[in-house]
Design brief:
binds CO-5-methoxybenzimidazolylcobamide; alpha/beta; 9 helices
Length: 210
């Protein structure tokens, strides 16, 4: 019988084939997709994070682990997305300028889609100017910015300032998230809300658009 520990172990080792195999086995056993993500895939990635921090893993290994995690998420994604739900609102998502971390943002996008939101994923390394361009193009209800680096999170404030200068701030709710952020930082940056994880991001959008 497949288990979460096994799945985490293969994420840590970056074994894409095994991650797919164990994820599929858990799906076939009827395990909840969210448990597979949280207790298997994210749990493995958390270990990768600690080892990376302690110098026990290096960037190429982290990238391979991230790729294997994404392979698992891709298998689970169709199970939690309800294609027939009317749109709850439009959310534009992007990782800020200079930041190439996109796994958490993509998870947020997936959770939002599964709860009926239309998600436009602008990608990563998005400058304030590019966010403005994307907002003009897509006219979203919510802008969601993600940052994983203490250096890049400062661009959230720059983006919000530019939205004000361009007269767009009142048209869009702004939410922020990512491991180094906090509610205090979000308040200081002038965001409408902060979510510590993907599920909370959905609750936050629901509250802001109610
Ligand atoms: Co990087 N990295 N990384 N990295 N990396 C971190 C973030 C770091 C904490 C590792 C460490 O030292 N422990 C550290 C940052 C230190 C700091 O600034 N305080 C770090 C560093 C230093 C770097 C480089 C500078 C390393 C180097 O080159 N020397 C470099 C920077 C590159 C760049 O961005 N310019 C770098 C590179 C990379 C990789 C490319 C190798 C890879 C990214 C691959 C990818 O994303 N496609 C990578 C990874 C994978 C990590 C760790 C190991 C894992 C991040 C992750 O995906 N976590 C990370 C260590 C860690 O976080 N423990 C680390 C899983 C993900 C599901 O969690 O993203 O937190 P997270 O998302 C959560 C919540 O935060 C929240 O919901 C998600 C799900 O619950 N959330 C939101 C996220 N976005 C949200 C948006 C919202 C709401 C909620 O609203 C819009």
């Amino acid at each position: 019988m497949a288990n979460f520990e096994e799945l985490s172990k293969y994420v840590i080792g970056g074994n894409v084939a095994k991650v797919k195999q164990v994820t599929q086995a858990l799906i076939d056993e009827g395990v909840s997709p969210l448990d597979i993500i949280n207790q298997g895939l994210i749990a493995g990635m958390s270990v990768v994070g600690s080892r990376f921090k302690n110098g026990e893993m290096y960037v190429p290994e982290v990238l391979v682990a991230a790729r294997s995690m994404t392979a698992g998420i891709d298998l689970v994604k169709p199970l939690i997305a309800d294609q027939n739900m009317p749109s709850a609102g439009k959310v534009l998502l992007g990782t800020v300028k200079g930041d190439l971390h996109d796994i958490g943002k993509n998870l947020v996008g997936m959770m939002l889609e599964s709860r009926g939101y239309t998600v436009i994923n602008a990608g990563m390394d998005i400058s304030p100017e590019k966010f403005v361009e994307e907002i003009r193009k897509h006219n979203p209800d919510v802008l969601g910015m993600c940052a994983l680096l203490t250096t890049t999170m400062l661009h959230m404030k720059d983006t919000i300032e530019l939205l004000k200068e361009e007269g767009l701030r009142d048209q869009v709710k702004v939410i922020v998230g990512g491991a180094p952020l906090s509610q205090d930082f979000a308040d200081e940056a002038g965001a409408d809300g902060y979510a510590p994880d993907a599920a909370s991001a959905v609750d936050l959008c629901n509250r802001l658009l109610a």
